[in-house]
């Protein structure tokens, strides 16, 4: 509460001081007044400096807008061919290179892979060994001789042994063999031994079946044709289904990968005997020849284990179809497809398909590496070597390489992966490890890495990743994460917003790191890194702090003079604002969508705190310097302080993008208090420069109207200056209500004093220019000067809105109560009111210059009307004046704005009224035609100045001097009796207005006896009359008479007795007058009561008079002189002592020398006035 009261007192003191600046109670400013004094023109360089000052201020005000435009331009990232900056990282993240010996062993592995290729190559594979060898020599930088040695070694080595992995997945749309409309299918599969080329041709001509091939197989005598029973595999029986799902895997060792075949039968199981048992019994048989015999014995075995009572084959398994696949037709990457079931013969009826996955791989490799290292490790080394070579040969945008390798590389890698039996998951992990590791030395496209992560995620199978592979995957995730965090810390250098390619890469990197932290693989192998967003937050904070420190190190704001330090600090804050703008426009969106981290909040709070600390320290130095007596705020320092304030305001404004919880307790809260004293001094500099600019505008103004306007260049320049200062205040947006009120008061006073100063300078310029100019050109320039002042006045009329006075009033009411609001209202509106009075004063002065120029001509034309003979036509008498006014009106209408035209017309109208009134008063007692002529002149002027509703209003014209003139003309045209009657009407009207006077009062009763036509007047007493004798008393008596005398020629005045030495005489006397109805019906018929002081040595003294119209007593129905009439309440009349000579009627009557009645009336009134003067 104490703080609030202190604030209120402080603000009210400021208000009182502000009100005193331009108080109307003070005497007019002297020539040295700082508010309205306009010194002689300063040197030209000062005016130019003022222009440059406002240009710099405008540039400062546009800083935020320019920053927004620059940020938007950065956001519109079109096609940009400029490569992004290098992504320099810590050496700890760069992987070790392998030795030459290891390369030779790896080369042997690659050559062994090429030599032992199997499977049908795809179109993108290279078929030529020579082409593959040539490519590998380049990859491994191998000479011809070394290549031949290794190739010879590989050819002498043991050939690779192959196996076939068969995955029987499912079948669909099988034939229904059971009565219930279903079948109980199972599969029997095995490898058919190699065939001769002739048999291969026969195979192409007809379908295979076990039964049809049996005879040919039995004819073979070679022992290699005999296969062991374990090469025959059987799936489980799937009961009652036509779409069985087995998902069983079998591995067969292959003797002849180029000639052997895979054969598969699907049967309907019709008894309870296990087919697996039948196959088991075959293991006891040896020496059978031919695969067909084995399948035949299985079938017989199954039948023999059926029902014992049935010797027929009714319970034999029903054939559902078969599939024959030559191993040499299997693609390099294997089969994963649906195969159509085939019949045994044309008589068989089968339908449906079976889904098989087939893959050939080696189960024994005769290479050095394969004997001491794992297949995963070998493939990883091979891929790393190939990736490094492929990337070095990318010519266009190598930083954006998508990881695609050449056909020879793809061929070698595919064959090696197939031969070493790497699963898709293992291959995905290897590719991720290689590319992410390579990326740390030579960057690749982040979309490639993201794609590799997605592949791992899609293939992820936790049980398949154990041991070394799990550890290696964990290390790769860790290294990549740390690498990305390092880049995040340096993101402003590595991923600048000025590079579209860099921002695109950054977005993909964040998406990748965000995707990785949500992968099940990452959670499994890196269980302790479950708060990656905290690591990202830490990296952003550290990177932001380091970036700010680099700014400080670059600009070094602690060096140089105080002005230089502040200027450097402005550059620092501007750089921070630009960075925050980029954070809000670009980076924050990337972080939020990719990793759900509020980058803007983190970086803004960090930068805001560091910037606030540095500026606070600097402003303390500034305030300390300004507090020294000999120090003052220079213009340069003021501009820098203002720019620093605006930069901080821009920085503070970004808090609106913070979450509500983060927008509290920020370091820049209340930062305006650091600048309060400096801004006060700086506003004085702005005022001085504004005055210089206005002075320059007046000097260079040629007083020529601008296009489509009636004001000149200086008015535009002045309002432009005001607009800029107003915009400065708007941009300041001072948040403290008390401070805002003080500043608004100061600005309003500055505006008002500058406007008055401008108007005074324009007036002086017009005064200097009037010499030697013709009437028309001078009138035009004067009109422009008036319009200039009006243009400025209208502009300043919007100050309450432009400076948000209502907002200041509300703020002051909240902080200081209703009294504070009232003081604000009075102070600000008082300033504006005083300014308006000053501008009107200057406008009147200019108009006076104009009318003074017109005065000789107008006086001549008025004199012409006055001296015109009575016989002349009124139009002819008035026409010269009207012709002059018409010509003047054309000039004024063309060059004045409406408001000024009204003012000038009003001034001309008042001038003409005064001139006509002077002419009339100088010519009293002349012929009535004289007054009729001027009456006609006034009526003509009324219509002229009204201008059919476009000029002055009748209401405005028929007031003031017009009423006086109109009355003067009307009275001058009256007879002497009419003037006397008018005199008593005015007296009656004046008597009614008297409520209390210092001359006392008189109490009377009046009642009229209609039958007798007699008016009874009873004078009761008087009270508080003035003392006219030396003893402080009077000897009063009352004279009563009927007036005017020409209406009551037979009535004589009557008087009471004298009451000695009293101021409260009691008379109680009756007087009777004869009054006819024709007499009392006149409004001017009245009774006058004149109180006199009896003086037996000299003339009686006049003490006062009162008047009562007869209409108050004499009217039909009024109580008569009967006893009832005597009960009428007395009337109290207040006495007055007005001088008759002050009334125009008196002067008019006095001017009528030849009129006896007029002269007699004047004589009697002068006697009364003379008695007043002798007191």
Automatic annotation (TrEMBL):
GO terms for biological process: exocytosis; positive regulation of neurotransmitter secretion; regulation of dense core granule exocytosis. Residues 642-762 form the MHD1 domain. Keywords: Cytoplasm, Endosome, Exocytosis. Residues 143-302, 998-1123 form the C2 domain. Residues 15-42 are annotated as: Disordered. The keyword Transcription regulation does not apply. This is BAI1 associated protein 3. The keyword Cytoplasm applies. It comes from the Eukaryota. Belongs to the unc-13 family. Residues 875-983 form the MHD2 domain. CDD domains: C2A_Munc13-like, C2B_Munc13-like. It is found in: Cytoplasm; Late endosome; Recycling endosome. One of its GO terms (molecular function) is SNARE binding. One of its GO terms (cellular component) is recycling endosome membrane.
